[in-house]
Specification:
2 copies of one chain form a homodimer. Chain A is mainly alpha-helical and 145 residues long. Chain A has helices spanning 5-8, 15-35, 41-52, 58-65, 69-81, 103-124, 131-144; strands spanning 56-57, 85-89, 97-101. In chain A, strands 1-3-2 form a 3-stranded antiparallel beta sheet. Chain A binds a DNA duplex (30 and 30 nucleotides) through residues 24, 27-28, 31-32, 40-42, 57-59, 67-75, 78, 93-97.
Chain lengths: 145, 145
DNA sequence: TACGATTCTATTGTACACAATTTTTTTGGT
DNA sequence: ACCAAAAAAATTGTGTACAATAGAATCGTA
């Protein structure tokens, strides 16, 4: 029941490619909408994590978001400049940097809910179905329309 | 049957986040293995496309891979330096740059098949199942082990 | 058949990602 | 209490991504 050797290296057979392309396509949909909030897709994810739980360390944030300090440190500094978060050393452990929302950061949640709801309703559809074919269908929708 | 407004902005509900994280996790698995072939994940995708069809334009390649000239132009120049591809203007239409495999590029296919087969067999499992839960399960596998 | 519109590649600018390394601080064992 | 090992964040270096723009070539049509 093996796929022929020659078929193995076909782009269409690549589950990874489907994931990669869907992910990029989705981010490309999000970014122009998030721009109205002063967010990028990555900073949007950081805000989502912080709205759920505030005052967490950089490494806890990284574990939630699958991002390392090389990505988070400069991003969080930028978000601090925007006035969305505060960065301060943990007094109990000076190695740790704790990230807290500012008032402005907390207030952004309601606007974000309203702004992103149109995209969310599109994505609502994806939460059931069979993986690979649906990813490919999504792929078409994301790039063709 | 709506999800409460507050639930809409939960990270766990984000289909996009699952796609984004799975995609990154997969690329992180591929890259160290592809490194032995002198490829990155992106140049691997370019090679996949060219092994299927050689002598295509930059824009045709971009359509297949969902990449634009801003990504492809510098990447293809690097791959030309590596001796994997040739870039030449189309004589019939000087706007077009045609990308062709070199002998070295064609010969890389067999080695790549052998090198990537272990990953492919892992991914084989994903081609059926239901989307969102399976993405989350994959996510765990990619990052926990 | 000029010439404005379109097509195609290249360039510029901004924003990630992550591996590898470094720096600072804490911890655990003697 | 000392000190090697571990942990946390920051830094460095490389490699994408893509929007916006530029510049050259081609096309369509008045």
């Amino acid at each position: 029941m093996d796929i022929a050797n020659d078929e193995l290296l076909k782009l269409d057979n690549e589950v990874g490619f489907a994931l990669y392309a869907c992910s990029k396509g989705l981010i490309r949909k999000y970014n122009p909408i998030l721009e109205r909030l002063g967010l990028t897709y990555t900073s949007y994810l950081v805000m989502l994590a912080l709205w759920e739980q505030d005052g967490v360390s950089v490494s806890e944030l990284g574990k939630k978001l699958y991002l390392d300090s090389g990505t988070l440190t400069p991003l969080l500094k930028k978000m601090e400049k925007q006035g969305l978060v505060l960065r301060r050393r943990d007094e109990a452990d000076e190695r740790v940097v704790l990230i807290a929302l500012t008032q402005k950061g907390r207030e952004l949640k309601a606007r974000t809910e309203r702004t992103v709801s149109s995209l969310n309703s599109t994505l609502q559809l994806i939460r059931e179905s069979s993986l690979f074919n649906d990813l490919k269908r999504l792929l078409g929708e994301l790039y063709e329309i």
